[in-house]
Amino acid sequence: MIDSYDALTGSRRLAPACLAAAMRILITGAAGFIGSHVAEAALAAGHAVRGLDSLAPAVHDGVPGYWPGDAELVIADIRDPSAVGRALRGVHAVCHQAAMVGLGVNLGDLPGYSDVNVTGTAVLLEQMGRREIPRLVLASSMVVYGEGGYRCAAHGQVRPPARDLADLDQGRFEPRCPRCGADLMTATVPESAPLDPRNAYAVSKVAQEQLAAVWANLTGGTALALRYHNVYGPRMPRDTPYAGVAAIFRSALEAGRAPQVFEDGAQRRDFVHVTDVAAANLAALRAGQPGRLRAYNVASGEPRTIGEMASALASAFGGPQPQVTGQYRLGDVRHVVARAELAERELGFRAQTRFAAGMAQFAKAPLREPIRAASPALA
Known about the structure:
Blueprint: E1 24-28, H1 33-44, E2 48-53, E3 72-75, H2 81-87, E4 93-96, H3 110-130, E5 135-141, E6 149-152, E7 156-158, H4 165-169, E8 185-187, H5 200-219, E9 222-228, E10 230-232, H6 245-254, E11 260-261, E12 268-269, E13 271-273, H7 274-284, E14 292-298, E15 304-305, H8 306-317, E16 323-324, H9 341-347, H10 355-362
Parallel strand pairs: 1-2, 1-4, 2-3, 4-5, 5-9, 9-14, 10-13, 11-16
Antiparallel strand pairs: 6-7, 6-8, 12-15
Helix pairs in contact: 1-7, 3-5, 6-8, 8-10
């Protein structure tokens, strides 16, 4: 399938893969929130699954009870070349979910995001090249866009800079037009939008995509980056500084507290259920073009505000209604709403879980206990 390989130059080219319907798939970060759902979906589709997970003590205290018994699990660090190489033996494709997640709440997080997410991805790709594995599905994120799409009534489509701290302190949360200072209208974000990472996690996700593009170009492999929007569902980690907003709200309700909604609650997001994200990974295994990276938004197509999500979750749980605090978090962006048509057109993927049904189910679904809540979580 490959002519020759030079580990320094990557001069070999992978021939287009003719993958059988059933594959052996390596899922990195397989014991985590999203990875475990990808594993279950892959098994249900008839694929053989091997998981790779460090079972980091910040996340796990052992193999989780939900890990499927008919799947292998290699306990190793994504940054260990020899362990990654062993995990890749006999594999046809890789779903790369392993990552340190969250925004990165302080400067001390910068080395960790770079080491785990960037170096770990580089190790994986180098080992994939050595073992002639031609297909990668990469878990990326909507955070690569920074702020979402905006239009100014006077100046059309614009890219606002980071929000001014003085505005945030005064409760002015909407981005301003960079040309005239006027309030902006939101617009959906296509995959062609410029990348504008605004926190440590986002920078690491952009780097992962770029490394995957280099790998595809050097080897002729097929790489697809799935830019997940706000994923929620069973097995989310409980409330930590690095948890998703849905898990933070759900944790508050379980403790009898009202969800604390930052800013004015009008921030717009697209909340997509984890089972739909798993389905998108399986769809991506059958798509793509050799020698290039292709990126896709993975979203529900039903944008909601943070306040609407908190209210829906509280009502479904039967707990106190959310409280809007007016507080803000540095590194957060105001609105990110996906344009989801490309995934439907090219992958055949369309989210099936509607917002109301998904929130009703999530309100009663089990969360995952964090082991050390002070540390960034590995998915």
